[in-house]
Amino acid sequence: MSSSTHAAPGEDSELVKVAVLIDELKHEDVQLRLNSMRQLATIAGALGPERTREELLPFLVESVDDDDDVLRAMAEGLGESMVELVGGPEHAFALLAPLEQLATVEELSVRDRAVQSMSEAISTMPEDHIEENALPLLSRLAERDWFTSRIAAAGLVASIYPRAPDGARKRIVTLFQSLCTDTTPMVRRAAASHLAGFAAVLPADLVDTVALPLAGQLSTDEQDSVRLLAAESFAALAVLLPAASRSSSTLPPLKRLAKDSSWRVRWSSASQALAICQALRGQRPGRPTDAAGSAAPSAAGPAGAAAGSSATSSSSSSSASASSAAAAATATAAAGGAASHLPPLEPAPDADTGCVEVGMAFAELLGDSEAEVRAAAAARVSQVASQARDATVTDRVLERCRELASDSFEHVRAALAGSVLGMAGVLSDERCEADLLPIALELLRDTASQVRLSVIERLEEVNAVAGSKLLTETLLPAIVDLAKDAQWRVRRALLAFMPLLARQLGEATFSSRLTDICIEWLSDDVASVRDDAASNLRAVTDVFGFEWAGRSLVPRLKSLAADPSYLIRVTAVRAAARLGALAPAAPAAGAGASAASKAKGAASAASARAAFVPASAAHAALVDKELLPLVIALTKDAVPNVRFNVAKAVALLAPAATPEKRSGRIRDALAKMRDDKDADVRHFSGVALSELKD
């Protein structure tokens, strides 16, 4: 490919850069080739559509023996963004030649990206080009001897089928069926991972007569890595099946797979139980999530482990497993991810019975011999129980949860801790006290900090149904013990729970049991805990009022303001500032923020001149008589860090003070600090004075 270009003089410098990029495509230095390949769009734009088709693309076809990183960059550059640069959809077929070569290489990431780019190019092609170019491409890939080509073919079927002419669609179905029975396990894995996506573009009758039998066939494959991917497809197929046959088509294979000899397949069954229940209930399941909201474990984990046991090459054996997460995402989008654009899903007529069957099979997985299976099931206990809506299932699940609370594997207990408290929503108050709280208390006392942390983060779910007496007698002693937990993340998570406890326990109980703890956190060894503790005082004050703060908090803040450690004095200043700052008028979008976060936002928003809630008489009195004197007394502190924090604190307290204080003591204090020997102190006091004038 020649780097010569012709242009007006004003374009010379740009074209010289492009010429250099073209030359670097052939350079011996792999980094230069990689950098140049990442700028294919720039090169194509300079060459123009015709030269791109006739020179650049043929050159790229001959360059597929390059380094994997270079090939991956090439595959990315030949996607949808390149279509216009080769002349638009009418010439999109020109991109298929280099991408076809890339789709056959051994490196998985290159193949996957090449298939994605081919799908993007095919989606823009005119209908007549599908039969002329895309279908022959699919046939070539599916019929080649080397298995990587057939893996690529499995990934293209779903994008070509809906745009193919009616006469060709039967051939595509036959082709995909052959991939599902391929002699090479890696190809069958690829077919299994793309089955749900293919089913999503099939007519309804073919979902029942083609896709479902293929899923059943793959679910009995001799390779466990194929079976686990087939297990993942049933949830996606369920939403595509008629309501009347949904249970009978999906429950038998799910229950069979839940007893599979391979733990990886049982793991997949545990991960899919919730989605199956949702489909039976007429809900379009998204990507399953655990109770903490994180994505469910990808099939890549077990699949990869299974594939790793294969005697074939490492890159080939991991091909379907590593791409299964992407395939699952595609299937989810097709089957349920775009739920807002799809018609409502009719519930199965036997949804109650079906969900009970799923729930009982799921309960057995909670007691599985393999820790990974137990963890996958434990992360979904509350969600599956809420779908089952059956006392027998709930009893069985709770029985298993009691066993899991003392499981020998930490990650199993952590998974349970992140989900089990959600069962408070499906239990009566009596069952919550008798069955759920003992599990929560055991997990709160767990030796692993991650387990304790997971429970604390979900305590609100129990708090919503537990009365103040129950909290005081059961949870509160454990919470008090955790206040001095060795792990700072546990202390910090517990701190955020204080405003909620304040509302539940009432002023008397909170003051006697927890106020001292809230103050002690201001002296914590970890800065983030001290900072959150300062915000927490305002959040609790919003519950009990400023009079309570004056009685219970200010005397302790005064003691901290005289602490020998300047870090503690800084924390006392910040706590006083946040305690007395005006609260911003709460926008609707902030309704979900935690009380502590809102308190910190109240302090930081003052300088932004947001709309504030005016100070009440009690609020202004607290600022005038207690907080301002406390803060201003530290204007002569020996440590500059304390003094400039005083300047910032005064600026935050000033709007809540009475006009007399603002024009008198506050202004005088800031004026003196303007002459401080420290530059930061002078700066922040100057900023505070300017805001005071405004």
TrEMBL record:
Pfam families: PPP2R1A-like_HEAT. The keyword RNA-binding does not apply. The keyword Transport does not apply. Gene3D superfamilies: Leucine-rich Repeat Variant. Keywords: Repeat. Residues 291-319 have a biased composition (Low complexity). Residues 285-319 are annotated as: Disordered. HEAT repeats lie at residues 17-55, 172-209, 211-249, 436-474, 475-513, 627-665. Residues 360-427 form the Phosphatase PP2A regulatory subunit A/Splicing factor 3B subunit 1-like HEAT repeat domain. GO terms for cellular component: cytosol; nucleus; protein phosphatase type 2A complex. InterPro entries: ARM-like, ARM-type_fold, HEAT_type_2, PP2A/SF3B1-like_HEAT, PP2A_Regulatory_Subunit_A. Belongs to the phosphatase 2A regulatory subunit A family. This is Phosphatase PP2A regulatory subunit A/Splicing factor 3B subunit 1-like HEAT repeat domain-containing protein. It comes from Cafeteria roenbergensis.
